[in-house]
Queue: 4 jobs
Job 1
Amino acid sequence: MFPMVMPTYARADVAFERGEGAYLWSTDGRRFLDFGSGVAVTSLGHCHPHLVRALQEQAGKLWHTSNLYRVPGQEKVAATLVANTFADTVFFCNSGAEANECAIKMARKYHYDSGDTDKTDIICATGAFHGRTLGTIAAGGQEKHLKGFAPVMPGFDHVPFGNLNALRAAITPQTAAILVEPVQGEGGIIPGDPDYLQRLRAAADEFGLLLIFDEVQTGMGRTGKLFAYEWTGVTPDIMPVAKGLGGGFPVGACLATAKAAKGLSAGAHGSTFGGNPLAMAAAGAVLDVMLEPGFLEEAAHWAEILHGKLDDLAGRFPRIIQEVRGVGMMIGLKAGIPNTELQAKLLANGLLTIGAGDNVVRLLPPLIIREAEIEEALDILTRTLSEVSK
Ligand SMILES: *Cc1c(COP(=O)(O)O)cnc(C)c1O
């Protein structure tokens, strides 16, 4: 019989029934240290008391009204995001792919409204990931995501990530925007050099293009700053955000300057659920915690300690961990054995990790981990690598 849940995922055979902080408990009673955070989503850990309270309170008041009316929660969350970023304005949606769709539409509309109706194309990077909609698989440009879904949506060019000359050479009179992840996530935790990202800004300015940083994965404290662009000294024009924004509640946002967003007037874009009161309660609560003075600095401090310990570990097992890379709590272990094999063994030993391209095992722990969780993760990693290297 065909599975009743469509078999679009290669799922590990484990299910969870409860979570607290960095820990999950499975239905068969085992305890796991969650260094995947549901793919960089539960960045404040599971059941953070402030988030639980905010959502419970909102659940008893009002869930949904639609965007036909003002939503005070949106006004509040937008004000917080605007106050803490380059952005002037925010569109709320439900996922990372939708946030990228908004960014793509915004870029095209910006040039259309400027009278440059032929500026429709977006230069993206090879190895990129922007989501699984028809538009965002075209933007990602990866054969494994596009195969079987032709025709591919036109309007996306791809150049190697990190290669400025290739990017500049790809700019044509049809180019509307540049779209990159500051640190490629699904591609295998590949940090963009700050100098490269700065030069993308310069190229965008020189040719009148919009610069889009997809911060769906890098955003919300993942790299040690609220957003990864803060490491670069430059700002994008448009920034899709999601994953960590709701702490586990599905919510996305597309942040932009007023200039970039000028074309998205009433009727130009929309979402039934986007930014509903429940989603805004969750996002507001996440921002409350992340913007507490010292929170992100503390997370960055522990991330540095984790990096140091992982470097030592890689030194002890160089055949199995060939490289440790990443920024903040966004870490890639380049594996010398199939990453799926290593992940399965880590899971069996109680540590949850996430796979990525380039045979990488991703560690995306919640930003609340401290010494105890780091020590436990290192114990499990050390034990697992010892077993594997026998
Ligand atoms: C996960 C991810 C997306 C897609 O987000 P969804 O919520 O799965 O649609 C887009 N861009 C980046 C960089 C991501 O990591």
Note: The chain is about 35% helix and 20% strand.
Job 2
Amino acid sequence: MADDDDVRRPVPPAARRGPALLAPLSSALATALTSPRSPTSPAFWRSPLRGPWFTSLLGVVLLVGITVVSVTGLVSYAAYNPNLTPVNDQTPDKGLLGFYLFEWPTEPYWLYRLTQGVHVTLGLALIPVLLAKLWSVVPKLFALPPARSLGHALERISLLLLVGGVLFEFATGVLNVQLDYLFPGSFYPLHFYGAWVFLAGFVVHLALRAPMAFRVLRSGELRSRERELVSPDPRPSTLSRRGALGVVGAGSLLILVTSAGQSIGGSLRRTALLAPHGGREPQQGPGGNFQVNKTAASVGVGPDETGDTWRLTVDGPGGRVVLSRADLLGMPQHTSALPIACVEGWSTDDQHWTGVRLRDLAALVGYAHTPAPDVFVESIQRAGAFRAAGLTATQVRDERSLLALRVNGFDLTLDHGYPARVIVPAAPGVMNTKWVTRMRFEKL
Ligand SMILES: Nc1nc2c(c(=O)[nH]1)N[C@H]1C(S)=C(S)[C@@H](COP(=O)(O)O)O[C@H]1N2
Ligand SMILES: [Mo]
């Protein structure tokens, strides 16, 4: 291995620069901190795998991977129509952090299925790489003195944001994906603010470290400070650095193939063993054999409110219209092939939804001759996080956006939103309100 010459240095680096800081401390404490039994001593860390090459390679993989996860994540936030405050997003003062928000398009119709599939699947697959990277630099966490200079102190503070931020984002992301909204409602602001804390640390870290990482990978050349990751007293190696990278890569690959199927769909869906909504499609009979997010029973929606007495109330500047399901079926019916793509990363293949265009409903309440505005959609559901959602005018005006009554040629099942549910192209699943009871067309 290229570092072999370096690792036989007799004097641990901390011992060399220790006295400046340790002088005022009692000599007993000084001895304790530099003893090889203390993690503050470089000699405590004995894995022969640690070194700048190993760390740099993992770092470059994360540079590319986390950049993609971050961009798709910020885009995912924009997809929630957060500018329709406070309907969709109660995040107070997104202010400056919302600088990049844009109106989410309805084209291509699989847009959110792609961006969120990449965000979740790649995020999960990077976990082994992230853990290996953190493991590779853990001796630095304990290194003394805590700050060698002002610059070094600032770098360590940025690492706090970076490491704290990345652990927080991965933890909240995984909990949300695996446990079905552990933080109902509050997940969005937590994950969003956490992302910006992390990104601040990420940018500083890249500015300080990326040039070195690329140099180490290109030429293997090390400057003195970069040797601090190399153990001064390594144990005999049982696994080469390449072998260790292979283990990390195999872990990532395993996560990838056991989760990607939940968003790629088709016959790959059965390989999504890791995904809670992945492999098993509910078999609800005709029209209902695709993923359900929340069942009707789980949110307290029953046959009483969804039976013959159900009515849809539509409000707009032209007045109020109240419609039964038969009235809606009497209006012009249209069919759109659209998927449901959930924030959790799973998505369905295209389903064939049939119902009334949202813009035709707007026309009933004052928008027959002027273009439709935004709409506020409310569900029968009283409990849980998703009782209402705001859609933008762009979404309302798209001819594929429906208040669906049927799917794949059959009446909606109760779990998929019977008597009527919204379906909009390219939007996150949560915009597709089920068991709709009221729609208000107005500028939100
Ligand atoms: N009323 C209501 N509508 C809802 C939800 C809900 O919990 N309640 N879940 C939303 C979410 S998060 C998704 S992903 C889709 C899932 O639709 P499906 O259960 O028909 O697959 O419905 C959306 N509409
Ligand atoms: Mo969802």
Note: The chain has two domains: 52-263, 297-441.
Job 3
Amino acid sequence: MRRIWNFSAGPAALPEEVLRQAQEEMLDWHGAGCGVMEMSHRGKDFTSIIEQAEADLRELMGIPAGYKVLFLQGGATQQFAQIPMNLLAGRSADYIVTGSWSKKALKEAQRIGNVRCAATTESSGFTRLPNPEEIKLDPFAAYLHICTNETIHGVEIPSERVADTGVPLVLDMSSHILSRPVPVEKFGLIYAGAQKNIGPAGLTLVIVRDELLGMAPLTIPSVMDYAVMAESGSMLNTPPTYGIYIAGLVFQWLKRQGGLEGIAAVNAEKARILYECIDKASGFYRNPVDPDCRSRMNVPFTLGNAGLDAAFLAESKAAGLVSLKGHSSVGGMRASIYNAVPLEGVQVLVDFMNDFAKRNG
Ligand SMILES: *Cc1c(COP(=O)(O)O)cnc(C)c1O
């Protein structure tokens, strides 16, 4: 067996320890005589799995009482619609657009109701954050939506830097949740598709303040109503049981890494050595994002000579460094260095990039 260094943007690398434990428990979970995929979601075994997963997530993120944790399906894209369905209540909402994902969130919400773009950095190619004077907020908005890590453009707003605006803040944290501590109590709702930094695709996490529950009109489907899902412990219908189980193993793995403080220190070092490599070879490699808001999780970069792209991809792949091709909308390369990508993997990438630059510079 050979494991690659996996820089996929999502679905993405998972900790090897977690995969090995899942492998070991595949046929017989803790003496149950069957695996997690095969057991009733209403039985005591699965109940203990989902309860432990929620308790570990609450401990890791410091989620206060007064917030519900929902284990849903449909991906972050479903949340683009489900959020306005639940929270608009006939009012308007504001969106800050800092990349492709927040742009999509705004467009989808426009199908549901009255929402407005409060600021966009599209004319700057999504390489910076909007200046405070560019942001035109509606003080009566039902909520303000922000994507705190733009997976495609590599723009990150550390959540402690998100300012209170007097309306509930709704954050798409799909690609950097659990990568660093988050002041959850500042936010109304946090959501994330699991397949970037949590676990397998098919699970979507929503963390929502109690006061935001129960505002949805009775005309929306019950599976889309946060209050109904909260009331049923995410079990109105069958939840994505295997995804919840793997997410739970990832939460336990994170606790063994020293929690979010511990993993944040590793993530900071991974990002530091990769950006240093890109900046040092300036001209050969380039990252266009304002250093003030460069993502620690998704690092897009271009080669000064795009004619070398194919050779870069072929040679990196041969060296065991995989999924480095950039998103088609921005081109070039992208290294996604989520929690499960170890420092050693980023060091191997940096060594390859330095060598490639020397040979082709
Ligand atoms: C991947 C991603 C999405 C879309 O997630 P799906 O689960 O595929 O719907 C939304 N927002 C961000 C920031 C993402 O990275």
Note: The pocket of pyridoxal-5'-phosphate is lined by residues 10, 75-77, 101, 147, 151, 172, 174-175, 193, 196 (CB under 6 Å).
Job 4
Amino acid sequence: MTSGAIDLRSDTVTRPTPGMLAAMSAAETGDDVYGEDPSAIALEERVAAMLGHEAGLFTVTGSMANILGVGLWVSPGQELLCEARAHVVRAEQGAHAALHGVTTRTWWHPRGLVDVAAIQHMMAPDAGPYLVSTAAIAVENTHNFAGGTVQPRDELAALHAAVAGTGVRLHLDGARLWNAQVATGVPIRDLAAAFDSVSVCLSKGLGAPVGSVLVGPADAIAEARLRRKRLGGGWRQAGVLAGAGLYAVEHHVDRLADDHTNARLIAEIIADAAPGVVDPAQVETNIVMLAVPGRAAQLVEQARTAGVLSGAMDPNTVRLTTHLDVSAADARKAGETLADLLGSLH
Ligand SMILES: *Cc1c(COP(=O)(O)O)cnc(C)c1O
């Protein structure tokens, strides 16, 4: 990164805090392939308990947690349904198809939300000898590429009811599920309750350098543990990293509220200077999407020169993400920088 720049490209860019580094160096370790790393085991148990699931599996990335989670439920040639901009189908290099033979169909929602009517229309749990059978549905909460949107609870309950008795499984990509908890006040275990498996990231807003956890039923997680090794994801002294994760879930959840406040602040400053680029009322968590038709790359470059790093999602959309290493003063400065650029472009 450009030194001294305010880095809003992603909430993955955080550095471990001194407290986190101390927890990492104090963590007990052992060989986790032998099941002997006490910190990895503690992290898996802690996150499973937080999410109200039986067991947990520490993975190197959220992608690996999703690949293993979906792979538990969908056999080769069966299908996964998900929203059109879901991370599982857009940002995991086709892993579900390439590694597990998963086929996918998508529904579209402008805010990335679950649409039970659309899902019911598509879902074919036992499609017979001619069509592809639906084995699982993936939901993303919060939805990254739709702008950090939170899935409405009643729609999740309706989805749960819609699959009851069909054998169709539900996987939750909860990379930013803690953001959803903090934004809504709904406990994370309630947000995770309807799902057969859930992945959560420690490396996003929680500020750990690495890691995700997949939770689900004990027998399924035991199977995922074998498959993690097959993918080359077996850990040795994982406790150094699990220590960061344990520290993150203890100390960095409540402060996500600051990221949400900072994201809203950025959106408000920009909306004042350049109406129509962003609606602050739609900024629910730590992600701000700017609608800049045809000039996303240009804006990203101009902002970079002015000391603010951002990301072009497509030719029309710039994403700004707040996190642990962005202060309120940084957010204000970044908002003002972008407001100046957008105001002069108008
Ligand atoms: C970041 C992210 C993941 C996991 O990404 P990794 O880089 O593989 O850790 C999964 N889903 C969503 C929605 C994400 O934003």
Note: The chain is about 45% helix and 15% strand.
